[in-house]
Each structure stands twice: as structure tokens, then as C-alpha cells.
Amino acid sequence: MNGEDQALGFIYLLGVLVLVVSALMVRRIPIGKGLKMFAGWVLIFLAVFVAFTLKDDFAALGRRVLQESRGEGEVVQAGRELRIRKAADGHFWVNGKLNGDSVRFLIDSGATTTSISSETARTAGIEPSSSFPVLIQTANGVVAASRARAERLKVGTIERRDFPVQVSEAFGPMNVLGMNFLSSLSGWGVEGEWLVLKP
Q1: Is residue 106 helix, strand or coil?
Q2: Which of 61, 66, 91, 133 qualifies as a FRET site for 194, CA 20 to 30 Å off?
């Protein structure tokens, strides 16, 4: 929500509050009782204003709780196969380990190489190469990234060692598990609401 919407919402609630105060004054309610009623209405309107202002945050929190309750991002072991449920946004997300550090990945078959944010690289102790950066075509345009290698990448029971990744500040908080991981498997595919990974 932008600042203009917040300002309009505040003005609206302020106007309603003024109407309530006017109504209380017209009824000639005793001052003590009137102050209690006024304080109650102020608290109600403050709660409504906060809820109105933070509705996008509450909605995001609700989606996250729903995803976690449905087990989205969690790997389900089915024999030797790993199964990952599709998230509410239509994508497949997985919680993996990068050098032992917990990382949430978007699984993207359109990404050639697994790509991680600079913050994820720092947390996982991955040093970007000092060689010339590579240019990557993303949904937001072309960005520069550094090559690097992760000592260990683990998704469920599937583990890869000395695994090539790309690192860039431009990725923001996004971490993407790309085709270089998927092509290292014996097979993978989508079955209804599930992404199936075969070691």
C-alpha cells in the first residue's frame, strides 16, 4: 500500500471518529462515561486503521502459514524419489542445504545454472570468483553474476559436492535451483501437484 492510500484511510477514519465524538456530545452523556466511550471508540478505530494499513502484510503472512501447513517446500521421500508439492503461487519451492546452511530455493528449469543471492553466499561461506563476471538473462533483464562453487548442496537425500553456482546482488533474496542440478538427476518431472526428483 502506498502513502497516498494510507493518508486517505487515515482521513476517513478521523472523519468517522469526529462524527462519533459529535454524537456523544449531542446526547449529553456525563463526562466520565463519555470519556470511557470515547477511549473505547479510539481503540476500535486504531485497530481498524492498523489492520487496514498492514492488510498486505497480514495477507502475506496468511499465505506463508497456509504454505507451511500444506507442507509446501518440504521434501517428501517416496522410495528413492523425492516429491515436492506445488506452492499456492504455482511454483515449486524447496528447503535445501547449502554448505549445511538452510536455504529456500525456487526450482526453475528455465535457469541454466543454480543462482544464489550475495547474502546467501556470505551466510553459506561461498566465495565468488574474482574472474570476469558472467551476464545472465533474467525476468528483470540482463544482470552480472560471479561464478562460485558450493562445497555441498543437499535437497532431501540428494547431495552434490563441489557444485557450480552463480552469485549476484541483483538476485535480491531469491535463490534458484537451476538445470545444472536437475540434469544431474537420473530423472525428474511433474505429476499433478508434485515435482518428482529421481536421484
Answers
A1: strand
A2: 61
